[in-house]
Structures are given as structure tokens and as C-alpha cells.
From TrEMBL:
The lineage of its organism: Bacteria, Pseudomonadati, Pseudomonadota, Gammaproteobacteria, Pseudomonadales. The keyword Transferase applies. Belongs to the CFA/CMAS family. Residues 12-87 form the DUF7884 domain. The active site is at residue 358. One of its GO terms (biological process) is methylation. Keywords: Lipid metabolism, Methyltransferase, S-adenosyl-L-methionine, Transferase. PANTHER family: CYCLOPROPANE-FATTY-ACYL-PHOSPHOLIPID SYNTHASE (PTHR43667). This is Class I SAM-dependent methyltransferase. It comes from the Bacteria. GO terms for molecular function: methyltransferase activity. It comes from Pseudomonas laurentiana.
């Protein structure tokens, strides 16, 4: 078996064991802590150029098994790929046509998997977006409450404000804004499963008079400036580069003059928005977020400005998301048996790689997370925001 292995593999020094379908194994370095179990002989040739997409796909399709801590698995697979592949900048971006039908199907694929599955590893409020760690020592629950408060404070939310929550998920932010800040909230989603549970939670908290959750596409938002504030969390990643201008125009039309718009979402490393190299981006597109496209900070900021909004504050939460995803991954890994009863094995394999892999990607700086606060200026170009950020941290 050793003679059949490519020389490039034999010369590596990684704490990684290759175990083959016939029981034989080969250690790539001393004291291996991760094992790749090759179940399909045809994979041997692929191991000479193991892109992250190839390795992930083989695991998802059951052609190989991965043994060891999922976080160590991700790191060792990256090191293996890095050692045997030339670092590249990923393929040139192929722009995706996004229409209402395609977007609804993509959202359903990801978010309608199983509410019970998400409840296994999210916080109690089921906030499926980057948490906010003031010290780094918070629990996930504390950090998610921090994030909800941070967003509302950045929006200078006041009692009686009418807030639009674009991509409201299970309604955690909408309920928080209503309960803690006295806002009226309209939340929109394309996920029927999210809407069902979100409405149940609104009713359970007695917030029906303040919170209205609906199935609605952002393209159909009212354009009469009825909302005092707009927040969009983890949503614009699904819009697609081709529709970013329209997306920003719809937010502009929804908010009143002097109102604030907060866009919280994942941003690309590269200015043109192409995915990170060695196949990681391709894996996410294939298995996790079909047709998702990440814009660079400069790209989304330009579209926000072109729509007529003024960018007034930008904050990176990249390391916060690395920690958030690590929490999610660790929680899922601790409940794999329960998860296996809720979703198909293939789906569980995808999510194990996705959560641990994205935590690694944010920590490495392959992708980022930015909160972009914008204002719709008054007719004379002014606005009423405070002169400094001091009010946010009192």
C-alpha cells in the first residue's frame, strides 16, 4: 500500500493517519490525532491534490470517514490541502441570477431543515447570527443578548419606533426589540418553518400587538418610508451580487427620512467577492448556502451609498463570529446522537463540517463580518445622530 501512495503524501509530516478500506494504514507524521478513513479506492488519486471541496464532498457522500476532534480534523485537512496544492485565489466569480422562486427554494433548503435540529445547538432565543462578546468570557446566551442589545442601541431604538427586521429568522431580535425597547416590529422571512415557530414564540410572550412576522420577499417591501428603523441580520449574503443595488434601494424606500438602517452580514476577503481558495467556497455553495454570494465591504458600502443612504459607522466582528461558530460546533458535537434522529446522516455531515469549518475560516481571516450603520438623510442633508459613539457604551 505504501508503494501506491503518491510521493507527495509520503513526504509530509502531519499528525495525520490514512486508513484504507483493507485495514492497512499509513501515518503521515508521528503521534497522529486525526484519521482519514478512505473507503473508496478511487480517492487515492484525489489525495494528490486534495482541495477542501473534494475532501468535504467525499465525507458528505460517505466515501471517507473522519476520526478525531472535528476542529482538529478541519485544521489538519486544511494543512494537508495547503501542503499539496498551490494557494490560489479561487475561481473568478460566476454571477448568479436570483429570482423570487430560486431565493425561496434556497432559503427553504437551509432554514427549513428542522427547527428541533437548530434548537439543539443555538441559544435559547435561537439567534442564528454572530454573537457579541464584550469580554470573551460570556456564555453563548449572554453573548447573543449582548448582540441584540448592541444592534438596538446602534439603531438608537426608542419606545414606539416602528422597526423593520429583514430576514427575521425565528424572531429573536424582533421580540427583544419589542420587549426591551418598546418598539413595534414587522419581521419578514422566506422560511415557513421559521415563521411558524417565530409566531408561536411571539404569542407565548404576549407580544402580538407589537410584533408582526410575515412571509415576504425584500423586493416586495413597502416603499412609503413607513419604518423609523431597518435592521437586516445575516440576510444580504443570500441576495446575490446582481441584486445588491435593488436590495439597498428597497431598504432606502422602506425607511423614513432621518431613519437608520443597520446591515449585519458576512463579507468577502477579496474585493471582487470571489470565494476563498482551495475549494472552501465551492463546498459552502454546493452543500450549505446554494447561490450565496459574499460581497466585499467596499462593494456593499458602495451600493448602500448609491441607494441614497449615508454610511455612518462600520464595525468588524470577525473574531466574534469565529467564537460564536465554535460554540455552535461544540454544542452540535456534544449532541450528535440527538441530531442524528432529527436530520438525515448526509445533512448532519454537512453541518458538522460547515460549523467547524466556518469557525476556522473566520479565525483565519478568510471571511469577515461587518455591521454597517447608515442613515437616510433629511431633505437638507442633515441627520440627528449623536456626535460620538459614547452613548453606545454607557
Amino acid at each position: 500500500m505504501l508503494a501506491q501512495l503518491p510521493a507527495a503524501l509520503q513526504n509530509l509530516q502531519l499528525p495525520l493517519r490514512l486508513k484504507f478500506w483493507n485495514g492497512l494504514h499509513f501515518d503521515l507524521g508521528p503521534r497522529p490525532n486525526v484519521t482519514i478513513v478512505v473507503k473508496d479506492p478511487q480517492l487515492i488519486s484525489q489525495l494528490t491534490r486534495p482541495s477542501l471541496d473534494d475532501l468535504g464532498s467525499a465525507f458528505v457522500e460517505g466515501k471517507l470517514e473522519l476520526e478525531g476532534s472535528i476542529n482538529e480534523v478541519i485544521q489538519l485537512c486544511d494543512e494537508l490541502s495547503q501542503a499539496l496544492l498551490q494557494e490560489d485565489d479561487g475561481p473568478q466569480p460566476q454571477r448568479v441570477a436570483h429570482d423570487k422562486t430560486t431565493d425561496a427554494a434556497d432559503i427553504s433548503y437551509h432554514y427549513d431543515l428542522s427547527n428541533d435540529f437548530y434548537q439543539l445547538w443555538l441559544d435559547q432565543e435561537m439567534v442564528y447570527s454572530c454573537a457579541y462578546f464584550k469580554t470573551g468570557s460570556e456564555t453563548l446566551e449572554q453573548a447573543q443578548q449582548n448582540k441584540l442589545e448592541h444592534l438596538c442601541r446602534k439603531l438608537r431604538l426608542q419606545r414606539g419606533d416602528y422597526l423593520l427586521d429583514v430576514g427575521c429568522g425565528w424572531g429573536g431580535l424582533a421580540r427583544f426589540a419589542a420587549r426591551e425597547f418598546g418598539a413595534r416590529v414587522m419581521g419578514i422571512t422566506l422560511s415557513k418553518e421559521q415563521l411558524k415557530l417565530g409566531r408561536e414564540r411571539v404569542k407565548a410572550e404576549g407580544l402580538e400587538q407589537q410584533v408582526d412576522l410575515q412571509i415576504l420577499d425584500y423586493r416586495d417591501l413597502p416603499q412609503d418610508g413607513r419604518f423609523d428603523k431597518v435592521v437586516s441580520v445575516g440576510m444580504f449574503e443570500h441576495v446575490g451580487h446582481a441584486n445588491l443595488a435593488l436590495y439597498c434601494e428597497r431598504l432606502f424606500g422602506a425607511v423614513r427620512e432621518g431613519g437608520l438602517v443597520m446591515n449585519h452580514g458576512i463579507t468577502a476577503k477579496h474585493i471582487d467577492g470571489r470565494p476563498v481558495g482551495r475549494g472552501a467556497g465551492e463546498f459552502i455553495d454546493r452543500y450549505v448556502f446554494p447561490h450565496g454570494e459574499l460581497p466585499h465591504l467596499s462593494m456593499i458600502s458602495a451600493y448602500i451609498s448609491d441607494a441614497g443612504l449615508e454610511v455612518v459607522d462600520v464595525e468588524s466582528l470577525r473574531l466574534h463570529y469565529a467564537r460564536t461558530l465554535r460554540f455552535w460546533s461544540d454544542r452540535l458535537e456534544a449532541k450528535l446522537d440527538d441530531a442524528g434522529r432529527l436530520v438525515p446522516e448526509r445533512a448532519l455531515r454537512i453541518w458538522r463540517l460547515y460549523l467547524a469549518g466556518c469557525s476556522y475560516a473566520f479565525a483565519k481571516g478568510w471571511i469577515n463580518l461587518h455591521q454597517i450603520l447608515a442613515v437616510k438623510p433629511l431633505a437638507d442633508g442633515s441627520h440627528t445622530l449623536p456626535w460620538t459613539r459614547a452613548d453606545l457604551y454607557r
